[in-house]
Specification:
alpha+beta, two-stranded antiparallel sheet, 10 helices, about 15% strand, elongated
C-alpha cells in the first residue's frame, strides 16, 4: 500500500526495466519538472497533469529497449559489487589497524614501548611572517593533509591574512581538534607533499624527534589506540565539534611502538592495503561516471 498522495502507474507498451533506468536520469527530472509549477510548500511542486501527459517520451524499438535495459542493469550490478568490495576493504583495514594497535598492545607484550607524545615530538614554531608560502593546507579526516584549493575548490584563506599561519614541511605531523565521524577526536595526519605548506594556527604542528618510522606513526594516529586517553582527560570545549586540547594534554598522548623491524612491517602492510583500497575506490568512481555518461547519452 502507498499513500493516496502518490501517483501509481502500470508500464505498458515498453520495457519496464528501461523505464526503471530512465526514471533516475536527468532527462526524467526535466520531463517532470517541465510539467510542474511552484507549490505552497518550498519542498513541493504542483504537477500539471495535462501538460505531463502531453509530453513525448522518445524510445527505441522494443528489442533495442531490452538490450539497453540489460546493459544498464549489468552496469548497475557491477557498480553494486564494486561498492560492496570497497566496503569490505574498509572493514578489513579497520580490523588490521585494530589488531595491530589495540589487540597486540593490550596483550601486555613487553616488546612494545609506550612513551608520551612530548617525548618524541616537538611543536613547529615556523610562521609565515613574510607571507612567502601561498600553499594553504587543510587537515581532512578522510583525505589527510591536502591543498585547500583542491579540497574546497577555492582558497578560504585570503592573501595578507596568513602571517600567523604555521609553515609545514614534508614529514611534519598536524593535529586538528575538530571531531568527525571518521575521526572522533580529530584527525592526526602526516604531511607527505614536497612543497612547503601553511596551515591554520588552530591546528597543532609537530616535528618528529625520535628514531621511529614516520609511516608507522602516521598509521598509529589513524587508529583509536590514543582515543581513550583523550576521553579520560579531555573536555568538550566551547564548541561541541572540537576537543579542548591544552599543550599538556596533547603532549601527554601515549605513543606505542614495537621494534623498528615490526614498525616497518606494519607500515608497509597497511600502505599496501590502503593502496588496494584507493584503487578499488577509483574503479568504483569510474564505473559510476561511466553509467552517468551512458544514461546522459541514451536519454536526452
Amino acid at each position: 500500500m502507498v499513500s493516496p498522495a502518490y501517483k501509481t502507474y502500470d508500464i505498458i507498451g515498453c520495457s519496464v526495466d528501461l523505464i526503471a533506468q530512465w526514471i533516475k536520469s536527468d532527462a526524467a527530472k526535466r520531463f517532470f519538472y517541465n510539467a510542474t509549477t511552484v507549490g505552497a510548500s518550498v519542498c513541493r511542486r504542483n504537477v500539471e497533469w495535462d501538460t505531463l501527459y502531453e509530453q513525448s517520451l522518445y524510445l527505441p524499438c522494443r528489442d533495442e529497449q531490452e538490450k539497453v535495459a540489460k546493459f544498464l542493469a549489468l552496469l548497475s550490478n557491477r557498480i553494486n559489487k564494486q561498492q560492496q568490495f570497497v566496503a569490505a576493504l574498509k572493514k578489513y583495514k579497520r580490523g588490521v589497524i585494530q589488531h595491530i594497535f589495540r589487540h597486540s598492545f593490550a596483550q601486555g607484550n613487553t616488546e612494545w614501548t609506550c612513551v608520551r607524545l612530548g617525548d618524541v615530538f616537538k611543536k613547529v614554531s615556523r610562521r609565515n611572517t613574510n607571507g612567502m608560502v601561498k600553499n594553504v593546507i587543510t587537515n581532512s579526516a578522510e583525505y589527510g593533509l591536502v591543498p585547500q584549493r583542491e579540497f574546497f575548490e577555492k582558497d578560504i584563506a585570503v592573501d595578507g591574512n596568513t602571517a600567523n599561519y604555521y609553515v609545514i614541511e614534508e614529514g611534519d605531523f598536524v593535529y586538528n581538534p575538530r571531531k568527525s565521524n571518521t575521526a572522533p577526536y580529530g584527525p592526526f595526519n602526516r604531511y607527505s607533499l614536497s612543497e612547503k605548506g601553511i596551515i591554520s594556527p588552530l591546528y597543532t604542528c609537530l616535528v618528529l624527534q625520535a628514531d621511529i618510522y614516520p609511516s608507522y606513526l602516521a598509521w598509529y594516529f589513524k587508529s583509536d589506540a590514543w582515543h581513550r586517553y583523550i576521553y579520560d582527560n579531555g573536555s568538550q570545549g566551547v564548541r561541541h565539534d572540537r576537543v579542548s586540547m591544552t599543550d599538556d594534554l596533547l603532549m601527554g598522548i601515549p605513543v606505542m611502538f614495537p621494534d623498528r623491524t615490526r614498525q616497518l612491517i606494519y607500515a608497509e602492510m597497511l600502505d599496501k592495503i590502503e593502496k588496494r583500497l584507493q584503487a578499488a575506490q577509483k574503479e568504483y568512481e569510474l564505473l559510476v561516471s561511466m553509467k552517468v555518461g551512458c544514461v546522459q547519452q541514451l536519454f536526452i
